[in-house]
Each structure stands twice: as C-alpha cells, then as structure tokens.
Write a structure and sequence with these properties.
By secondary structure, the protein is of the alpha+beta class. Helix content is 53%, strand content 12%. It is globular and about 55 Å long.
C-alpha cells in the first residue's frame, strides 16, 4: 500500500490490484448477506424504535434516506456532514415534509422527508433541540455498537458497520425497483432487461 497527504490535508491510500480484489470479495459478500436478511433487520430496528432506542431512530433515518453516517462529531476536514452529525440547522419543516440540507461526501444533499414516523419525530424534535447539537443525539461509536447488537439478534455471520448497512440499503432499493418493474417478457428481450437493470442501478445511485 502507498499512502500520502496532499496540501489539503486529506490522507489517501493506493492499494495493489490483488489487495483491492480480495477486499471487494469480502465486502460484497458481507453486504449481500445483509441484503438477504434486510427485512428481518428492518423489523428489529422498528421493534427497537417502539422500545425507545434513539440509536434505532438514527438507523431508520439511514434506512429511509441512505444518508451516510459520519465518524466525526461535526464537520470533518472535508467540511462535510453525515447522519450522526446533523444539527437542527440542517432541517426545515415545510408543510407536510421536513427538508434536510447538508454538505455530504459526494455533493450537497437535499432530502425531503415525508415518511410519517420520521416526519413526526423530526417535527417534534426540532421544537426542543438545541442549536448546534446533533439532532439524533447518537455518536458514530454508539451507532456502530447498536448495529452490532442488531447483527447478533438477526443472525448475521459478521457484525455490520454503518457503511455496510447503508450499502445494503441502496442494494435493497435496486432490488425493490427490479421486483416492481420486471416482466416475464424481458427474458426474451435482452435490451429491455438491460435497460430495466440500468434504471434500477440509477435508482440506487440516486438513493446514495
């Protein structure tokens, strides 16, 4: 591995092709297992929300929005934010939706949250939330620990990290799209099938 730090202070690493391949095999095998058990994982998160676990609320936010978690307590060196570091200043209530805007790792995000539970939760939370404090009140380590607990309860081979959970969420978006748009006639129409798969990938990309 070769590492370096350019003038902007953001460290980077370059790995050998064989190392990248081996890491990818492990990563995608883990994400695939999470995706296969996604309904069970989502069910556990909902149960934990009912039990009053705020970590579960944050996980549900990631589940609905595909937002990445942030290992920092605020803006990192890139000046970006994640689900764990969002503050009241990033949210605005507009009629029947909550708009969430923030600088993300892959560009400026603007989320329109209409999902009933999250809309009601955020609307109430914003009434008493203190300026500059994380809206969900859950740190990255606490989210990681919570997802480990969910992993054990749902029988995952390995504990999922926040980024694994997010990737699996995007994969589920693609799968849902394919299930909704797939037609038996596509088996004989390669062009139509390829177009549908491409649209599913775009849908997942828009989610993240």
């Amino acid at each position: 591995v070769a590492t370096g730090t350019p003038p902007n202070g953001t460290a980077f690493a370059r790995y050998a092709p064989k190392t990248m391949y081996d890491r990818a095999q492990v990563k995608y095998a883990r994400v695939n297992e999470i995706t296969e058990k996604y309904p069970k994982i989502a069910g556990q998160i909902i149960e934990d929300i009912k039990a009053g676990r705020k970590e579960a609320v944050l996980a549900y936010f990631i589940h609905i929005t595909c937002a990445r978690a942030d290992a920092t307590s605020g803006k990192n060196k890139r000046g970006t934010l994640g689900a764990t570091s969002l503050t009241p200043e990033n949210f605005t209530v507009k009629e029947k939706k909550v708009v969430c805007e923030f600088p993300a790792k892959n560009g400026y995000w603007k989320l329109e949250i209409t999902q009933p539970f999250l809309f009601n939760y955020l609307t109430e939370k914003l009434k008493t939330a203190k300026k500059g404090e994380p809206i969900f009140g859950v740190s990255y380590p606490k989210l990681t620990q919570y997802l480990r607990e969910v992993s054990e309860k749902t029988g995952l081979t390995e504990s999922m990290m926040p980024h694994d959970f997010r990737r699996a969420t995007a994969t589920q978006v693609a799968r849902d799209y394919i299930q909704a748009h797939y037609k038996p006639t596509m088996l004989k129409d390669e062009k139509a099938y390829s177009k549908m798969v491409a649209e599913a990938i775009n849908e997942a990309a828009r989610a993240i």
